[in-house]
User: Fold this.
Amino acid sequence: MPSHRRPFVLLGLGALLVALATLITPLWVMRPFRPQGPTELAVALWVLRFGPWLLLGAGLMAVAAVVRAWPGGWWRRIAAVAMLVLTLGAGGLSRINVFEKMFAPMPAPRFAAASESGLPDEAIVMAVRVGEQARGYPVEVMAYHHVLNDVVGDAAIVVTY
Amino acid sequence: MWTRTIQGKTLTFHLAGIHNQNFLMRDEETGSFWQQVTGECVAGPMRGAQLERVHNDELTIARFRAESLTGQVLLGEPGHSDSYERDWELGIDELPTVVDTSDSPLPPRALVAGVAVGGKARAYEASRLAAEPVILDEIGEVPVVLWSGGGRMLRAFERRVDGKALLLAPADGEHLRDAETGSLWDFRGCAVEGPQAEAKVCMTSVPVLWDYWFDWRAYNPETDIYGR
Assistant:
């Protein structure tokens, strides 16, 4: 194997590895029904925080691999472009918030008078009062969405379940 | 439930992760991560910050309506009605837990009402609350009353007026009577008849968290259990 071939392969594989790690680390650490140790949780949250920078680095490496591979002929071009596409694919997937895919957010909550909610009398709501304004959040709705940003009276609150 | 204005910023939260079966939220404004059950920032620029709790009660909609004539109720999103289950807890009881509670007298998914006040935490088993709808107790030298209004409806109050602890006992289905003044107190914790009513006295609410035993204990390691 000629030695000038290796830099583009290493660059491309390195880019792909970084993108895959960015995608997989948080999902793997924060999968349900298992405990999260403090260190692994810190690593997963670090990857989430700095994911965009990791992906920028991976993208630049993958592009550099294509540039290096280009003069070397069609097979090298195809290999380098394939690694670039896979890197971008993994990077794109890592930007999806799976928790919000599972439990959709409620960016524009709607409310009705308590007598017009359509819920049976025994349904349970989480009741809040701020000044004169009272709001009830049905447990059956919050148990699915889990997080709701709202404003009651003059207070900005986050309802959690 | 938390105030989302902190250090002069109003944050917008999203579900972002999971930590020992309790959700993590992330705010848009700073990108910090917050533990949902404690309101504590665990990672990111605001690490160490603590959200302020907003008092809330779990009430039946009938009770909510009776107490707040102009109250509003959140409507479900049209596209997600299949995901709303009134009895979802029946299914979740079967799920595994990841926190070891074998050194305690309760199974991990025992439903408890947790109260933390005066620097102490105490768990009340749901079965115990059903059998004993009015509990006079003292937690961390704070006299409290836990009052079950049927089902999951439970309120806790600091039963102290002008520095004196109230001895409360059920008067009828809807009211408690205190031994000192004979005043009647309603489920909002307010005196509605007798000398205390004339002064429009209401007891101070104490937060109650319905939770699974394993989760309550994970965040309140020093908790004890009422009656055990």
About this structure: Chain B touches chain A through 64 residues (CB under 8 Å). The CA atoms of residues 130 and 151 of chain B lie 8 Å apart. Helices of chain B lie at 61-67, 88-92, 126-131, 195-198, 213-219.
